[in-house]
Amino acid sequence: MENESLKYERQRDEMVRQQIESRGIINPSVLAALRNVPRHLFVSEALRDQAYGDFPLPIGEQQTISQPFIVAEMTQALELGKDDRVLEIGTGSGYQAAILAEIAYRVYTVERIRSLFLQARKLLDKLKYHNIVMRCADGTVGWEDESPFDAIIVTAGAPIIPESLVNQLTEGGRLVVPVGNQHSQDLIKITKDRRGIHQTNLGGCRFVKLVGKHGWSES
Ligand code: SAH
User: Fold this and answer.
1) Distance of CA 155 from the midpoint of ligand 1 (Å)
2) Which atom of ligand 1 is nearest to the CA of 71?
């Protein structure tokens, strides 16, 4: 077992050098988080040896764990500080939540599919991520009681920028969300300051759909 975890540690190192640093991700805390979090535990046993590949993988319920690079890119775009409180919509496997939890003060994450929520909760508890708070609900409405957040990340594709999430940002807050149709999206970054909202396009991406009140309908 010791050998096994060493093997995966080496694969993580290689992943960070070949897929992440080589493509321009430079934030040291993001790179350290990707080196620390055991991504292979966030996929089924049958897929473990593929966990550090340059692609997304299925996690059941027709959902996916994102490609490592997109996790790194979105996390860097959030410009997290160690005192920040972060909201994630779309817990899925819990991998992105773990990455955020390595960097920020507290992570609030919402998943709508009960089986994924339960599985992620079990794993994140086992890995002792005590600064992650989880909820099984429709995340498109945000998490009013815990708002405002310094950063919000949506890990499913939205038809429009969810207004409710923009409203739950602090002044100085950052929101990263894939916006587009059900086949492809643009990664949009919103920053909020005293004067209002600023929007930048970080480029094309492809996510499973965000389903809910301010997202797509179920079918
Ligand atoms: N961040 C995840 C990626 C999960 S894929 C990871 O690291 O593994 C996107 C997830 O968003 C899916 O699990 C899907 O069920 C969830 N999702 C879609 N719409 C949602 C909504 N309105 N609220 C909460 N979760 C949602």
Assistant:
1) 6
2) 7
Whole domain around residue 114: which residue ranges? 55-205
Condensed to tens digits (0 to 9), the pLDDT of residues 139-150 reads: 999 999 999 999
The answer to whether residue 187 sits within a structural domain is: yes
Radius of gyration of the chain (CA): 16
Condensed to tens digits (0 to 9), the pLDDT of residues 36-71 reads: 999 999 999 999 999 999 999 999 999 999 999 999
Q: Is the CB of residue 19 below 6 angstroms from any atom belonging to ligand 1? A: no
Q: CB of 51 within 8 A of CB of 37?
A: no
Q: Which residues of 156-165 are buried (b: 16+ CB within 10 A; e: fewer)?
A: bbbbebbeeb
**Is 44 a domain residue?**
no
Judge whether 105 lies within some domain: yes
Residues annotated as catalytic (active site), given as ranges: 66
Is-contact 169 148, C-beta < 8 A?
yes
